[in-house]
Amino acid sequence: MTVVSSQTDPEALTLTFVAEFDANVERVWQIWEDPRQLERWWGPPTWPATFDRHDFVPGGRSKYYMTGPDGEKARGWWVTTAIRSPEHLEFDDGFADDDGEPTGELGVTHAVVTLEQVEAGTRMTVFSTFETAEQLQKMMDMGMEEGMREAMGQIDSLLAEARA
């Protein structure tokens, strides 16, 4: 089923996605935990992600880049701030330089991911909080909402491979 809803709240400085998948919570958790699976869906199809580092522990750092259709690279980083396997993950996310280090460009986004068992499988909620209204607007202008919808749209086929 994938993305059920997305909601931007400019007053609260948040962007929320709700998606549902035909897989159990433990299986959906793996798409966050395993960098090879994460990179198969983290970027939209035209901007696939590559994770050079993914330390999936509290305080762990992740470094990645997304490659555009013309070969340009957009680099990013995460710091995992909380993990409660297999249903809760929090991380800070931002833009990075060529070495994968934070640039401070457009500030930091804090993401909270929750996975819950529902009748049809797993409901995943990704709740992102921005520092300022300007940051949220710039991210929207860059296509973050559409890009996340496209990215999450790749998860069903990834989960289906494991069942095949």
Molecular shape: globular
Strand content: 35-45%
CATH homologous superfamily descriptor: START domain
Total domain modules: 1
Order of helices and strands: EEHHEEEEEEHHH
Q: For the report, how would you describe the main beta sheet? A: 8 strands, antiparallel
Roughly what is the average pLDDT, rounded to an integer? 94
Report the span from N to C terminus: 18 Å
Which CATH first-tier class would you pick?
A: Alpha Beta
Report the strand count. 8
Second-tier CATH architecture: 2-Layer Sandwich
Strand order of the largest sheet: 1-2-8-7-6-5-4-3
Provide the CATH topology. Alpha-D-Glucose-1,6-Bisphosphate, Chain A, domain 4
Low-confidence stretches: none
Radius of gyration: 15 Å
**Structure annotation, total helices:** 5
What share of residues is helical? 10-25%
> In terms of structural class, how would the helical and strand content be classed?
alpha+beta
